[in-house]
């Protein structure tokens, strides 16, 4: 009898020290973080980096360095209607912006201008009020989620969010170092094309150094290691983190839909009016030929076929893409 009594006493103790059952809910924060969404990379292309970026936590944050690949390797041909020269847009960010605002069979007017001497990085313009509201709301949502997890005394959930902030901070610093102005060609005094050349020539981000590549690899590993951290978080902490990721992804997607301009190197490229549709590409080419007074650029781009192109020159600066 004493043996059976001893066994009965050991059963509850063994049950208490046995590992807890697997909780599938704990996988959601890591899986949501690793979702291959490019919403953060898209905003990086259009607005570069901001000081508040480390506080914007959303799915696909580890894909921010791939912003230079969003243009899918396309370098469209362009022509200066005043000189007839044909060149290609080499800046991946500008190419991606043109892909988003352009429409097949339509002529889209764009305006390139220099920004104010001291533009604010925090106060939005009137045209971007809705998009900026979504961005700052995402910042507030991340801060609220961190405060909520802290109030729950969920150390592992707070550690998960802290890792995401650290990853965003490292990517922010690396991209800031890589976004140095490159080669824009010789300046042309008296002709307002330097702003256009700054957005079309060269590249947006320079190649990463060995140190920048090392830090990029470290933060990628941290994203996957964070899945193990989420497995120790409480159910309430997991639900808070998942809700934060879902809300922030929707806010950033809304922001990307509202932005109709590109800001880079102190210049802005924005859409003017609505795209004008043409039934044939030839109609578009003939209209631009009449406006520019020359058609050699159209022959070089393959818009028209002509044995001998005219070389008349007109006033103003106009570029077609």
Brief summary of the model shown:
This protein is mainly alpha-helical and 321 residues long. It is built from eleven helices and six strands.
Number of strands: 6
Structural class: mainly alpha
**Overall pLDDT confidence:** 81
H/I helix tally? 11
Q: How big a fraction of the residues is strand?
A: 5-15%
3D shape: elongated
The largest sheet has its strands arranged as 2-1-6
Low-confidence stretches: 3-19, 117-123
Helix % is 40-55%
Oligomeric nature of the chains: single chain
Radius of gyration, whole Å? 27 Å
Distance between the termini: 93 Å
What does this structure look like?
The protein is mainly alpha-helical and 321 residues long. Helix content is 49%, strand content 10%. The protein contains 11 helices and 6 strands. The chain has helices at 2-17, 28-33, 39-47, 92-101, 129-151, 155-178, 194-200, 210-230, 235-258, 281-292, 296-300; strands at 77-80, 86-88, 106-114, 261-264, 267-277, 319-320. The strands form 2 sheets. Strands 2-1-6 form a 3-stranded antiparallel sheet. Strand 4 and strand 5 (267-277) form a beta hairpin. Helix 3 packs across helix 9, helix 5 (129-151) packs antiparallel against helix 9 and helix 6 (155-178) runs antiparallel to helix 8 (210-230). It is elongated, with a radius of gyration of 27 Å. The N and C termini lie far apart (93 Å). Residues 3-19 and 117-123 have low confidence and may be disordered.
